Amino acid sequence: QKEVEQDPGPLSVPEGAIVSLNCTYSNSAFQYFMWYRQYSRKGPELLMYTYSSGNKEDGRFTAQVDKSSKYISLFIRDSQPSDSATYLCAMKLGIQGAQKLVFGQGTRLTINP
Amino acid sequence: GAVVSQHPSRVICKSGTSVKIECRSLDFQATTMFWYRQFPKQSLMLMATSNEGSKATYEQGVEKDKFLINHASLTLSTLTVTSAHPEDSSFYICSARSPQGTQPQHFGDGTRLSIL
Question: Is A71 a residue whose pLDDT tops 80?
Fold first, then answer.
């Protein structure tokens, strides 16, 4: 079993739709959770960074972490064609733990005009 | 704006050539940088962790003599792919994190390496 599971998609939705992207994980020691957006032939760009459980909102993006269920989500409201990219979830242990990130496989998202 | 700069963005060279890729943190000092490899439509695979002033830590299965890492300053790490072969063709991405333990990693734009 992979430490972090993410549906690779592809996911295709019409412009303006609400998009829900999800990851599950097996290691309950993860404390920091991130969502990165990666355009083709580019490096990942940090979108959201959260610590522990709860919600965090930034513009059209909302990140949710449910540690009891080992489940994280990214919601995109009013989706735009420019949101078309691969979205990667990532997580890591606490400050005193390993520094390296553990990534999901990434979900390819296409927003159709 | 970008906080991590990676150079070059694209390399095409003949088999047997050694290729050096640079990763720079632009507005912070990074005691630790990370090197990843990404195959098409796949996620990032950590190759090694680069520590300023000490030897890099390589992930299992990554050849140390093949992928030489040097982290000589707090803002620069280099990855050298020695005697590259077609199977080394891939997208190589670096990341850096500020020394504050709570901060996330920021990634460079990657280097697409093609070995003919």
Answer: yes
Q: Is the pLDDT of residue B18 over 90?
A: yes
Instruction: For residue B108, give how far its alpha carbon lies from the nearest alpha carbon of chain A (Å).
Output: 6
Q: How far apart are CA A33 and CA A105, in angstroms?
A: 15
Per-residue confidence band for A96, with pLDDT thresholds at 50, 70 and 90: low
**Inter-chain contact A108–B105, Cβ cutoff 8 Å?**
no
Report CB contact under 8 Å: B110, A103. Answer: no
Q: Is the pLDDT of residue A18 over 80?
A: yes
- Judged against a pLDDT cut of 90, whether residue A41 lies above it is answered with no
Give CA–CA dist B40/A13, Å, rounded.
Answer: 23
Task: Please state, in angstroms and rounded to a whole number, the distance separating the CA atoms of residues B21 and B8.
Answer: 6
Q: What is the nearest CA distance from A50 to chain B, expressed in angstroms?
A: 10
Of B92 and A31, which is predicted with more confidence? B92
CA–CA separation, B77 vs B107, rounded Å? 13
Helix (H) or strand (E) holding B21: strand B19-25
DSSP sequence for B49-104: EEETTS--EEPTT--TTTEEEEEEETTEEEEEETT--GGG-EEEEEEEE-SSTTPP
